[in-house]
Inverse folding.
């Protein structure tokens, strides 16, 4: 008869369980003694913070679902009942509402860290792609959740965004009808969105498990972008990074709690406290802040795309905006192959560092433009600059950053790489391994 693996835990109950199902041995291996680069900075906290926020969203969402009624006649009032009559319902809802924003803040910082330090490069391409899938699932979940309170912005946001699919040739209107469950946003739409909003967080949790599994196969990147060469370059994950992650998480949750208790509606939209009325369109329909850059990209395409000198229209403005919006996220999937530089970290890439700074400015500029009305403008002295032009410029910078990477990799002269991770950490400065950067797998 086969025998289970031997265990050496002090607790006899843990020891007995582990001999029959070695889950504690697995945890010790993957989260205890797992070798981790010794030079992590606090940007590496946000992966753990995002996981904590995911758990917070799932738990608070389950409790809210016990009291929510997915019916167009009752949904708005059921939310009001949660806020007024359910014990601590106001607290759970504010945790869930603000938790969505803080979840996206953590994930956006996590993505930016990956961009800046080249965490999408070989051998971590699949790790990056799984992360982009998580991001897409988050966006779908957040959009459907925003519809559930059935306020004015919920209803009209759902109407506007789902209508975008009608721009797709041949199948567009069929997709819209499928999403609506009829010929307008109504009860079937709300039921579908509620079911998917409840289901998708568990799908996200499963994909996060794959994300972490892929991370533990390739190992973590680090601020230098240099692979560990020996034990001197790594530290066990526990206690060094469990303590560091815990500290960062406590600080983040303290800021989160401050918003929940003292500014619970900071990220909210006043129109969403008015019950949905299909007969009254809000003067300014705006999505949640974490969708604003993509909404601005959508609105920046105000012109039809035609073949020059022929007048033959290839793509209408509406379809062009939809393509640009989805393309702004889809381009992340091919990023590992767009960047041809052998160096990971922006610390050693002067042109790339300037490019990513321009990208970050463009991203926040798009966020600002997306929050404004379509006819808004900047007034500089006697000069009027329509914000649609600002959005178009920022969109050009956004896509230009990614599409220029193959050429940047060819012309950029990276700075010398350190000989190892331990060299600048333990002393000796960032002494170079050579006059120029070597390929990543040899660095």
């Amino acid at each position: 008869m086969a025998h289970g693996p031997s265990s050496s835990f002090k607790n006899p109950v843990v020891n007995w369980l582990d001999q029959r199902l070695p889950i504690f041995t697995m945890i010790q291996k993957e989260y205890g003694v797992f070798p981790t680069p010794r030079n992590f900075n606090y940007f590496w906290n946000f992966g753990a913070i995002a996981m904590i926020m995911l758990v917070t969203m799932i738990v608070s969402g389950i409790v809210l679902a016990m009291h929510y009624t997915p019916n167009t006649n009752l949904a708005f009032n059921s939310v009001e009942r949660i806020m007024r009559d359910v014990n601590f319902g106001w607290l759970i809802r504010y945790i869930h509402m603000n938790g969505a924003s803080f979840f996206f803040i953590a994930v956006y910082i996590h993505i930016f860290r990956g961009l800046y330090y080249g965490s999408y490069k070989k051998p971590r391409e699949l790790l990056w792609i799984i992360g982009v899938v998580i991001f897409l699932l988050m966006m779908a979940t957040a959009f459907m959740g925003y519809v559930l309170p059935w306020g004015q912005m919920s209803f009209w946001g759902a109407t506007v965004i789902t209508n975008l699919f009608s721009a797709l040739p041949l199948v567009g209107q069929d997709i819209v009808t499928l999403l609506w469950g009829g010929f307008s946003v109504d009860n079937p739409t709300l039921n579908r969105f509620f079911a998917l909003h409840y289901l998708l967080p568990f799908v996200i949790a499963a994909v996060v498990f794959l994300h972490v599994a892929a991370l533990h196969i390739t190992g973590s990147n680090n601020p230098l972008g240099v692979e560990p060469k020996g034990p001197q370059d790594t530290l066990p994950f526990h206690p060094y990074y469990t303590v560091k992650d815990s500290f960062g998480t406590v600080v983040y949750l303290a800021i989160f709690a401050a918003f929940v208790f003292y500014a619970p509606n900071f990220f909210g939209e006043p129109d969403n406290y008015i019950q949905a009325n299909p007969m009254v369109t809000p003067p300014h329909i705006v999505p949640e802040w974490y969708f604003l850059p993509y909404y601005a990209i959508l609105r920046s395409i105000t012109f039809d795309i035609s073949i020059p000198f022929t007048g033959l229209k290839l793509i209408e403005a509406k379809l062009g905006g939809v393509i640009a919006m989805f393309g702004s996220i889809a381009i992340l999937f091919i990023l590992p192959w767009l960047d041809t530089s052998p160096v990971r970290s922006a610390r050693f890439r002067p042109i790339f560092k300037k490019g990513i700074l321009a990208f970050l400015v463009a991203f926040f500029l798009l966020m600002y433009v997306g929050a404004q009305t379509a006819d808004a403008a900047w007034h500089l002295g006697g000069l009027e600059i329509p914000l649609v032009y600002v959005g178009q410029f920022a969109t050009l910078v956004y896509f230009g950053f990614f599409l220029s990477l193959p050429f940047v990799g060819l012309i950029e002269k990276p700075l010398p790489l350190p000989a190892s991770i331990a060299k600048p950490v333990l002393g000796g400065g960032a002494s170079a391994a050579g006059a120029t950067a070597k390929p990543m797998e040899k660095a």
Notes: The radius of gyration is 25 Å.
